[in-house]
Amino acid sequence: MKTYALNLVRGGVFVLAAAFAFAFTQPKNGLMDEFGSEDGVTWYNVTNATPGIDYDCNEVQLPIYCLYDGPSTSANPIGDIEREFVLLNPELEPVDLD
């Protein structure tokens, strides 16, 4: 009877851990928007832009990111650190933050 109760508790803990893993994990999909800014004020949605033509992420020796998942430096960074956003296409429309 003791082993049955112990197995029941172990199974319950496993199910609870799995539920928490799904509940507190944000899903990642290929539809995530990407934003970049040269100055931290003017942001560009580069989700459908072409790297190397519309913008670039140049390597720098500073602890900064090139792209974020929202138009703010407090949004989640995307990609490698020590990359700086450089706008190459002046025709790219800035994001309206209002």
Count of helical segments?
Answer: 1
C-alpha termini separation: 64 Å
- Please indicate the percent range of residues in DSSP E strands (runs of 2 or more): 15-25%
Alpha-beta content class: alpha+beta
Sequence of strands across the biggest β-sheet: 2-1-4-5
**What would the average pLDDT be, to the nearest integer?**
83
Low-pLDDT ranges: none
Order of helices and strands: HEEEEEE
- Describe the largest sheet: 4 strands, antiparallel
**CA-based shape:** elongated
CA radius of gyration is 21 Å
Total strands: 6
Helix content: 10-25%
Oligomer category: single chain
Annotate the secondary structure layout.
Elements (H helix, E strand, L loop, with lengths): L1 H22 L11 E2 L7 E2 L9 E5 L5 E4 L8 E5 L1 E5 L11
Antiparallel strand pairs: 1-2, 1-4, 3-6, 4-5
Kindly describe this structure.
With 98 residues, the protein is of the alpha+beta class. The chain has a domain of 53 residues. Helix content is 22%, strand content 23%. It is built from one helix and six strands, in the order H-E-E-E-E-E-E. Strands 2-1-4-5 form a four-stranded antiparallel β-sheet, with no helix packed on it. Strands 3-6 form a two-stranded antiparallel sheet. A hairpin with a 7-residue loop joins strand 1 and strand 2. The mean pLDDT is 83.
What's this model, at a glance?
Keywords: Signal. This protein is an alpha+beta fold and 98 residues long.
Q: Which features characterize this protein?
A:
6 strands; signal; elongated; 98 residues; two-stranded antiparallel ribbon
